[in-house]
Amino acid sequence: NLLQPPNERPELPSGLYVLGLTGISGSGKSSVAQRLKNLGAYIIDSDHLGHRAYAPGGPAYQPVVEAFGTDILHKDGTINRKVLGSRVFGNKKQMKILTDIVWPVIAKLAREEMDVAVAKGKTLCVIDAAMLLEAGWQSMVHEVWTVVIPETEAVRRIVERDGLSEAAAQSRLQSQMSGQQLVEQSNVVLSTLWESHVTQSQVEKAWNLLQKRLPKAYQT
Length: 220
Prior knowledge:
By secondary structure, the chain is an alpha/beta fold. The chain has one domain: P-loop containing nucleotide triphosphate hydrolases (Rossmann fold). The protein contains nine helices and five strands, in the order E-H-E-H-H-H-H-E-E-H-H-H-E-H. It has a five-stranded parallel sheet with strand order 2-3-1-4-5, sandwiched between helices. Helix 2 packs across helix 5 and helix 6 crosses helix 7.
């Protein structure tokens, strides 16, 4: 159900309705994005945009190397994301230096992707971004959709998926907004806590309700 009214976004490309999809690490956000893609949405994956931004010659590459030094580079000149991550993780000042560089770059790439979606005749796109709200990207979307699960389940999934210790998984979650903080700023909330078919029926219901409230120009 719609928890609060959608946002007017006259500055976005006309004829394109944009959802922002977010959720804590381990929430199952990527699986929901895939389900929305199967229903016809154009997906803008912020992780993919991040890889493009960090790549040699990418818009964030030089500023990041200048800010953090050449010792964050692999021998082939690419940025070692693990070394960079260890430098900023748990250090708010360093993290802010990095996000001040990278978030505006990824936002610009996302806007370019919106233009690609319009050129392909798409009327609905989804920005899949774990840090959507932290980065202030809710200003780029008509609605925020959040995927929620209990923190204990998120920790279990992160440990299983990424091979981290429970302490490391909890530390990762503490660096993000809590599920409750995300929900407070959301238009639609989904959960992947149960079996796959339950998630699918939630996504389909949310999609069908979205189609009903969309202006005719946006309907897929």
